[in-house]
Amino acid sequence: MKIPKTLFFKTQFDADKQGHFGEFGGRYVPEMLIPALDELNAAYEEAKHDSVFIQQVLDLYKHYIGRPSALYFAERLTAKLGGAKIYLKNEGLNHTGAHKINHCVGQALLAQRMNKKRLIAETGAGQHGVATATVAAKFGFACTVHMGEVDMERQAPNVQLMKQLGAEVIPVKEGNRTLKDAVTSAIQDWMGDPEDAYYLLGSALGPHPYPTMVRDFQSIIGMEIAEQLQEREGVGVLPNYLVACVGGGSNAIGMFNAFLDVPEVQLIGVEAGGTDIYTPGQHATRLASTPQLGVVEGYKSYFLQDEHGNVEATHSISAGLDYAGIGPQHAYLHSVGRVRYESASDNEALNAVKTTSHLEGIIPALESAHAIAYVMRLAPTLVPDEIVVVNVSGRGDKDQHILKQYL
Amino acid sequence: MSRTIAEQLALVKQEQRLGFMTHVVIGHPSLEETRQRVEIMAAAGVDIIELQIPFSDPLADGPAIAQANHQAVANGVIIEDCFVLAKELSNTVDIPLQFIGYYNTVLNYGIEKFMADCVAAGIAGLTFPDMPIDEEQYEQFYYHAQQAGLPVVQLVSPATAPERLQLIAEHATDLVYCVARFGVTGATDELNTQLGEYLDRVRQYVTLPLAVGFGISTPQHIQALHGKADMAVIGSALLNVPINKLANTLQPLCAALSVPPTNTIQ
Q: What is B5-247's CATH number?
């Protein structure tokens, strides 16, 4: 089997030295950011070859995050759907309740190595903001989280958590006042303070080296799945399908990366279908509809945009998937056909939350519920000896105020 | 027909003064007012005007210019409007007009068509801050600009490393834009105190004229650039000056272009 055993492995789908995944990725940033990105890239390249750094990351995964996260056989869900065996990779059990903490721990260690004083982050739903505020507290960094005013209102409990952890939360008042505007605001904050600040980007997107680096820190998810599944199903057993939701794409790429070079494992990313995938502004399916190439926020990928190249508004019931762009490696994996991209609607996601809660006693985050919703369509078409692993990227505690309106 | 950037720079040199570049966001607050503002600027003695093509996600622009971009996009201003306005203005003003914008607009429009339409509209140069030379092998933006005879104004920042200054110098044409400080566009009270040192460093690699922008807003700022830079750039500080006050606001700024500083740098 070709499953990697150590962090920071290579695959045939990696970026070149300048961060290009095929025609996607790169570093389309103003000159003011180039020196800071060069510094970051050099520090990252050095760190990932340093056995001390690797050991520090692994120790924190285990003792701070609580890894490995469980791979759980969803017996009742499997029985109800009447097809393939369904396993849930439960990233919701991690400290802070989602996969985001994986790349926050890695990047905070890197920031420490670079002698930075302050962490800057953007956040949509607040999960990445909370995870960043958490590692900032742990490592003794000052922390500034940029968050759209609209998101601050709909995710008020997370704003409170960040403040409790000692972070400053900056309300972003520009544009649509959501995630995309928070990203711009965070990048600009970094542009003004490149010496002391570390920009802790929250997904596998943005300019090089972020898509690669965030992916690398998330790849532990897939590495664990490979090992845990063999413990459960026998040596050499591979999953037939891996399914993950895709906003920017960090949990999905973290799940897929260890299996990219294993062609017999089918990989499926699930985007947010919102209320209507045919109406602009009502969904966030960048790939499952008609992909449009663009350069926005420092990287080349597919973006939801109008015919003049202006970025369009998006909608999803899950704030974490409500984003117009997608990580460049996903765009590449789509273009070469290695990963298939599907979508699930708001209603399907709500139904998946309900079903998983009632049958398994696991309340998934609305984001992760999109992946489960797709599995609920897929599993009945498969035979019982096929294995589907779905990434429950986070737990649903944060969504209770949204869920109570629907369920 | 308006002059080229090189012709205008030669004129500035001949008059032994600083050059002056200003900025408008096309369609902010309206296309008609943009046209009038450009004409007022040209009449006041401005040397080059940046016409910004509005974009939904202006990464390098601070709140004032970002807000203007969002407003123009919301007004429905599209690239075709920019070409129409540029063509009209390049026939009525003598000074060079250049487009500034974000690369996604060009990518979406088609690079070759964009360059051809710029030439047809009388555009004198281009600045696209998120199209660094590193990506040229994938985009051929600079190549097509050069084929069309359009200079691309490159940016450098106080943190740009010597080897990168060298690289930029090799690709630069006509003028290099020196970002005066860290951060995004926006007016400030005080100039970067290390500006002189920074510009000296740039001059070790770049022989072209240097424009300085980001944070420049007053006649004193302009005076402080005498003997250091070749051109002052004012964007944000003029953006929200009401049109009936624009000429009066420009007058002392233009006067400062030929007045050497009375005291040393603040």
A: 3.20.20.70
